[in-house]
Design brief:
The complex is a heterodimer of chains A (about 600) and B (about 200). Helix content of chain A is about 35%, strand content about 20%. Chain A has about 600 residues and is an alpha/beta fold. Chain A has four domains: about 230 residues, 3-Layer(aba) Sandwich (Rossmann fold); about 100 residues, Rossmann fold; about 170 residues, Thiamin diphosphate (ThDP)-binding fold, Pyr/PP domains (Rossmann fold, 3-Layer(aba) Sandwich), CATH 3.40.50; about 55 residues, Alpha-Beta Plaits. In chain A, the strands form six sheets. Chain A has a seven-stranded mixed β-sheet. A five-stranded parallel β-sheet of chain A has the order 14-15-16-18-17, sandwiched between helices. In chain A, strands 9-11-10-13 form a four-stranded mixed β-sheet, with helices on both faces. Chain A starts with 5 loop residues before the first helix and ends with a strand. Chain B is of the alpha/beta class and about 200 residues long. Chain B is globular, with a radius of gyration of 16 Å. A six-stranded mixed β-sheet of chain B has the order 2-3-1-4-5-6, sandwiched between helices. Chain B has one domain: Pyruvate-ferredoxin Oxidoreductase, domain 3 (3-Layer(aba) Sandwich). Chain B is built from eight helices and six strands, in the order βαβββαβααβαααα. The chains are: A alpha/beta (about 600), B alpha/beta (about 200). At the A-B interface, helix 1, strand 8, helix 11, helix 14 and strand 20 of A face helix 1, strand 2, helix 2 and helix 3 of B.
Chain lengths: ~600, ~200
């Protein structure tokens, strides 16, 4: 398995002053807090928390099939008496929300921390939901670190709060905290003794009669947490010029500090429940009170609801992420007059040269299929030239979308073929129940499982069907074919997507079938490949007519230069990029892309 | 280079996902840390890395707050690719330094679409007021023994423009690069540091 930061992990054992990403710092904090069990599902920008935890001895760090399973395992461990952590990207908490809301009622035996890494600006996400709302909705305390040092310190504080108040704690980061690097001082790891799990059905078996009583406890706990929030050093006032007082948490504090270095600040480390008395005190000491925050006006509305006069950013700034310049504009500065150069060709992310998904989508494009898509590298097939994805909402949803489309098309008399396409890891995450639904409800959906033997988009993590654990140890390998058959799909085909003809035949046959079918396109991710590759093919210039068919693959190793009388695009192969997959040679009808005789 | 504002230096590194910006920026940050600076870096992972336009911000000085460089505040732009230098030019201080690798990677929109790749990028950068230095980093890297060390060549070229002692760079490279690639990377750094840089005039 690929680890992005081996050198940094090595350093954590020795150095006192380390340059760590927020995610690495969270892992270090968990280690210092004595965490024994950690679980996660990969998702940007949270992935490296678990990857980093898996490098520490004495911590059982595991990838789970999805975030809900991860949280259930972490909760179970905390129930069993050891400190436990579950980490996930913001939308992962949607998956785990069912567990999250009710473990707020139960509490646990030892500390439990849930990390939500939000992605304002959607660098690698399908939405930019603001997960601070989850703290309020589930009545769970929330901490927001503003750099890597705080990320480490706040994890430790979160475990103490969790045990002191018998509550899960939400640690919320954003991309610039998780993937920002700054200096961290290491501390000595604690090793708290395991606590004994005591059977307490009234606390842990949430039947209505028990849950009603636990809700009372939750409301009382929230009041005690409010008092704690007013007293804790996690929240601090930094008095400066009293003309302007700024309240901010997380990375927004850093932007505000830089935008108005002389102002007074109330820096929130614990942003739910809010320190209301501290806010009132701060408000009374400044002339004008302003909130700087990314995404929703969460703090602004909470503070306004306290009856305190406060201003925030304009509604347009609820979109995307901030920087110090944007914070200054929110505070009334004129925006900078420099404009980006606009007449430049865009450079969207692309599927890698030799990506096994390329051929599948090339064929689906050719078959003019409506493709219900999913979350993974293959979502990039929505971009030109493949342009072969019609939906992408959330993990595993492709199959349900396809079944629904199929039902609607039957009513509408629409004859277009519908295909669901999702990756191996995504299928295990949330696709299995959707496939069961197809069979159970007598659909005849065609499902393509793009099996590249890894969770590619997030940096090649293992999952149950790779047969390896988070630490790379061998384990039982989930058999995808057997799983599909167990769901009730009798028609399961496996093809190598490097063989375009076979892929096309398998897809045509599956689409034509009047029963549910699964086509597993199996070829290892090109980034996993080791060892020597075959010498790349080359373009025979005299044979190439510049038809551009091969360019429809969208391979970054195929570069086109205008040539010939009509300025047609003649490709050349960038040898340093080419993965020698041979897809372009299969597409060419003029045999103009050929391999050297060997 | 000229004195940066409030003691902070902002270095933006831009290029195409897969060019090695993450390793090069890591080397830079470790070298800065070994020199005693406060340092912050911000980058993105995940989808953006798949051959798309990428940007990594590095800030150092006595005290750093924001992890991101604001528009108009970058002192040095290290461009691993020419088109990407143009794309992020607006984040530069008007009189900032652009240190650019003479590498042109056609985006998919150029390969398959009607968009032309911009001509004379160095001249265009210079006409906007930037001080431009161009190094053929892939060629220098190839001479060092491995074309994939172009990012370290650029760090060598950058080392002439920021106050970081050579031993801090060496320590950073030694810490971060696997042993079997260490010598070629150190050589790439030395060659980058010595490389003659072309300075196009606005014309």
């Amino acid at each position: 398995m690929a680890q992005s930061y081996p050198a940094v992990c090595k350093m954590t054992r020795t150095a006192q002053r380390m340059l760590l990403s927020g995610n690495e710092a969270i892992a270090r904090g968990a280690y210092e807090a004595g965490v024994k069990v950690a679980a996660s599902y990969p998702g940007t920008p949270a992935t490296e928390i678990l990857e980093s935890l898996a490098t520490y001895e004495g911590i059982h760090a595991q990838w789970s099939p999805n975030e809900k399973v991860a949280l259930d395992v972490a909760f179970g461990a905390a129930l069993g008496g050891v400190r436990a952590l579950a980490s996930m990207k913001h939308v992962g908490l949607n998956v785990a929300a069912d567990s999250f809301f009710t473990i707020s009622y139960t509490g646990a035996t030892a500390g439990l921390v849930i990390v939500s890494a939000d992605d304002p600006g959607m660098h690698s996400s399908q939405n930019e939901q603001d997960n601070r709302h989850y703290a309020r909705a589930a009545k769970v305390p929330m901490l927001e670190p503003a750099d890597s040092q705080e990320a480490k310190d706040f994890v430790i504080a979160a475990f103490d709060i969790s045990e002191q108040f018998d509550t899960p704690v939400l640690l919320r980061t954003t991309t610039r905290i998780s993937h920002g690097k700054s200096l961290v001082r290491s501390g000595r790891p604690k090793s708290p003794r395991p606590r004994r799990f005591e059977r307490q059905p009234a606390k842990y078996v949430m039947v209505p009669g028990h849950a009603r009583l636990r809700h009372v406890v939750v409301e009382e706990r929230l009041e005690r947490l409010r008092q704690f929030s007013n007293a804790t050093s996690l929240n601090r006032i930094e008095m400066g010029d009293t003309d302007l007082g700024i309240i901010a948490a997380g990375v927004a504090y850093q932007y505000a500090r830089e935008a108005r270095p002389d102002a007074s600040f109330l820096k929130l480390g614990m942003s739910y429940p809010l320190p209301d008395e501290m806010i009132r005190d701060f408000a009374s000491r400044v002339k004008r009170l302003f909130v700087i925050e990314e995404l929703d006006p969460f703090l602004e509305q909470e503070i306004a609801a306290m009856g305190i006069e406060v201003s925030g950013k304009p509604p347009a700034m609820r979109l995307g992420e901030m920087d110090a310049g944007a914070a200054a504009v929110a505070l009334g500065d004129q925006p900078p007059r420099v404009e980006p150069i606009t007449d430049l060709p865009a450079r969207p992310p692309v599927l890698c040269p030799g990506c096994p998904h390329s051929g599948v989508f090339y064929v689906l494009h050719k078959l003019k299929a409506i493709v219900a898509g999913d979350i993974g590298c293959y979502t990039l097939s929505v971009l030109p030239p493949l342009e072969t994805m019609d939906t992408c909402v959330c993990m595993g949803a492709s199959i349900g979308h396809a079944l629904g489309l199929e039902r609607a098309f039957a009513v509408a008399g629409d004859e277009r073929p519908v295909v669901a396409a999702l990756g191996d890891s995504t299928f295990v995450h949330a696709g299995i129940t959707e496939l069961i639904d197809v069979v159970y409800n007598k659909g005849c959906t065609t499902v393509v499982i793009l099996d590249n033997r890894t969770t590619a988009m997030t940096g090649r993590q293992n999952h149950p069907a790779t047969g390896r654990t988070a630490s790379g140890a061998e384990t039982y390998q989930l058999d995808l074919e057997a799983m599909c058959r167990a769901c009730g799909v009798d028609d399961v085909a496996v093809v190598d997507p490097y063989d375009l003809d076979a892929t096309e035949q398998a897809l045509k046959r599956a689409i034509a079938a009047r029963h549910p079918s699964v086509v597993i396109t199996r070829h290892e991710c090109v980034l996993l490949r080791r060892g020597e590759r075959r010498a790349p093919p080359h373009v025979v210039e005299e044979a190439c007519i510049g038809c551009g068919l091969c360019l429809g693959l969208g391979c970054p190793a195929l570069r086109a230069a205008p040539a010939g009388p009509k300025g047609r695009l003649k490709p050349t192969i960038a040898e340093e990029l080419c993965a020698s997959c041979g897809l372009c040679a299969q597409i060419c009808r003029r045999e103009a892309i050929v391999w050297e005789q060997q | 280079m000229s004195a940066p504002t409030n003691g902070t230096t902002n270095i933006m590194m831009v290029g195409v996902g897969g060019q090695g910006i993450i390793l090069a920026s890591e080397v830079l940050c470790h070298a800065l840390m070994h020199s005693g600076w406060q340092v912050k870096k911000s980058e993105v992972h995940g989808m953006a890395q798949r051959g798309g336009s990428v940007r990594t911000d590095v800030r150092f000085g006595p005290e750093i707050h924001a992890p991101l460089i604001s528009v108009g505040a970058a002192d040095i732009l290290v461009a691993f690719e020419e088109l990407e230098a143009l794309r992020y030019l607006h984040v530069m201080r008007p009189d900032g330094l652009v240190l650019m690798s003479a590498e042109r990677i056609m985006p998919v929109t150029v390969i398959t679409g009607p968009h032309p790749y911009p001509d004379d990028v160095p001249g265009r950068l210079a006409r906007r007021g930037a001080k431009v230095l161009v190094v053929d980093a892939p060629a220098v890297a190839a001479k060092a023994g491995n074309p994939r060390t172009a990012g370290i060549v650029l760090m060598g070229a950058l080392s002439n423009h920021i106050s970081v002692p050579p031993r801090a760079w060496r320590k950073a490279i030694t810490t971060l690069v696997p042993e079997r690639f260490l010598e070629v990377n150190l050589e790439a750094f030395r060659r980058g540091r010595r490389a003659r840089l072309a300075a196009p005039k606005p014309g």
